[in-house]
Amino acid sequence: MAARREQTDVLVIGGGTAGFGAAIAAARHGLRVTLLEATTKIGGVMAYCPGMPWGGAYPMDAIVGGLIEELTNRLAVMDPPAAEKRPCTLQHFGPEIIYDHDVAMLTMFDMLEEAGVHVRLGAIALEPALTGNAITSVDCCDRNGPFRIEAKMVIDCSGDGDISAKAGVPFSVGDASGNMMAVTISFFMIGVDWDRAFAEPDPYFQQYAKTGVAEGRLHKDLAKLYLMRGFHEGTVFCNSVHVRGVDGTDPVAVGAATQEGRRRCHQLATFLRSDVPGFNKAHMSMLSPTVGVRETRKLQGIYRLTGDDLARATKFPDGIVACDNPIDDVMRAEGDMTHDAAIEAGQFYTIPFRSLVPERITNLMFAGRILSADPVAFASVRGMPQCMTMGQATGTAAALALRDGLSVQDVPRDALVQSLANQGVNRLAVPVTQRPDQAGSGVDPVPVSFC
Ligand SMILES: Cc1cc2nc3c(=O)[nH]c(=O)nc-3n(C[C@H](O)[C@H](O)[C@H](O)COP(=O)(O)OP(=O)(O)OC[C@H]3O[C@@H](n4cnc5c(N)ncnc54)[C@H](O)[C@@H]3O)c2cc1C
Questions:
Q1: For residue 43, how far is its CA from the centre of ligand 1 (angstroms)?
Q2: In 191-335, which ranges are E strands?
């Protein structure tokens, strides 16, 4: 039994991009918010793979809006600018945001502080306690031992959904056979001659990689090299080293995959220097502290988003964020890395709030990569801008629920969508006349298909 106790209105578990969005949105609505993060840094995958672009931020070339737009603008107006929009070099991806990782991290902590969020780093949520269909408290621990947080509302943004699963929310793992996407360890090459390195059109450097693999100097899963310009001149972000078949909820497996990944990164850095033009004077830096995990549990919500919804470019009445990312599937079992288009060019779909709400528990929501989605939809929805906005939606929904004493299942969806639109989230199913912030923005009203 935990001797230390804390009370809060909203407990956000996990400080990745989803948790960041959830905590700020709830705190800006006047709620007491505790953000619990197991590591010493917020960002989640963004912190594990530092420098990774915010992908798919511009469905149909209009920014997703809301917190990701606010964060980007804060960085972009700095002197010198710390973020910019650019085209993505990968097939079927729209424009992305590239940024200075350290300045972005500082700014995200600033935004949490300004919103009054109680950020608790180095603390892990272990076990929920329920009375009936409501979570009453969550047992946690930090280096000083166990403590208990009593919360009116819990938002699970942990990427893996341990607490939701322990609270009884059904879930699935990976694809229909349980195969999860590969995990990835990233690094930078510093001191690259960009003009020489990116002189050829192939974004995957396959001609070079082929030689490396054939001669046994590169692992066979390095047939395509995902190398892209970093934010700073002469830096190259290397998002190429994937380790298959790792259960991201098993810390021992994650540790072993990280060490295997480090070996392959070192091998790749050596190869780049010796074989690829422009890299001969470069060195490896910012190696991930741990592998980035793409996929573990997908929780069961009131609505499960499907690949068919994406293909039909469905705009849900309770859609809370727009997306046009491709089906970004990464080496499940023996599969390849593919980026097939999810929808026709020039179309987008929205992610419904109901995919963030469990069927039974009345004061729990989830956001980010644990949302309720089938494996095809999951491969598209999981970009950081979308995760941050899912978080923003749940933080806002928490405020609506607590204000009116409602269960999360009863949050009025039109009021939620309206509130998000007022917070600047674009392309939601609200009449454009109700969008004072969008006058003259060029963002079109959304035709809604009811599902
Ligand atoms: C290798 C890789 C490359 C990617 N490339 C891109 C890209 O280029 N662009 C893009 O936009 N997206 C990319 N993605 C997808 C995107 O990064 C993720 O889908 C997104 O960051 C997930 O955010 P999240 O907040 O849901 O979860 P996470 O980022 O996983 O964050 C979860 C957080 O919860 C914490 N946590 C977990 N359990 C607990 C607990 N019990 N108690 C306390 N804290 C806990 C974790 O420490 C972590 O900080 C990539 C993902 C990976 C893995």
A1: 7
A2: 227-229, 235-243, 283-285, 297-299, 319-323, 327-330
Nearest to 159 by CA among 337, 352, 13, 332: 13
Residue 180 in contact with residue 335, Cβ under 8 Å? no
- The answer to whether 180 and 246 are in contact (CB under 8 A) is yes
At 61, is the secondary structure helix, strand, or coil?
A: helix
Give how far the C-alpha of residue 244 lies from the chain's centroid of Cα atoms, to the nearest Å: 20
The pTM of the whole model exceeds 0.85:
yes
Beta bridge partners of 97: 54, 85
pLDDT tens for residues 394-444? 999 999 999 999 999 999 999 999 999 999 999 998 855 555 444 333 333
Residues with CB under 6 A from ligand 1: 13-19, 36-39, 44-46, 49, 52-55, 124-125, 157-160, 162, 184, 239, 292-294, 368-369, 382-384, 387
Query: CB count, 10 Å around CB of 332?
Result: 22
Between the CA of 15 and the centroid of ligand 1 the distance, in Å, is 9
pLDDT in tens, 355-396: 999 999 999 999 999 999 999 999 999 999 999 999 999 999
Output DSSP code: residue 264: H
Report residue 139 CA to chain centroid gap: 25
Note whether 362 and 409 are within 8 A (CB): yes
Helix (H) or strand (E) holding 350: strand 349-352
- Residue 258 to residue 289: CA distance in whole angstroms: 8
DSSP calls for 20-37:
HHHHHHHHHTT--EEEEE
d(CA 360, CA 158): 20
Instruction: List C-alpha distances in Å: 226 to 185, 204, 206, 219, 273.
Output: 12, 6, 10, 14, 16
Contact criterion met (CB below 8 Å) for 170 and 300: yes
293 vs 207: CA distance, rounded Å? 28
Residues in Cβ contact with 184 at an 8 Å cutoff, skipping those fewer than 6 apart: 49, 239, 240, 241, 242, 243, 261, 291, 292, 294, 330
Q: What residue has token string 């741990």?
A: 290
The first and second tokens of residue 244, run together, are 């298959």
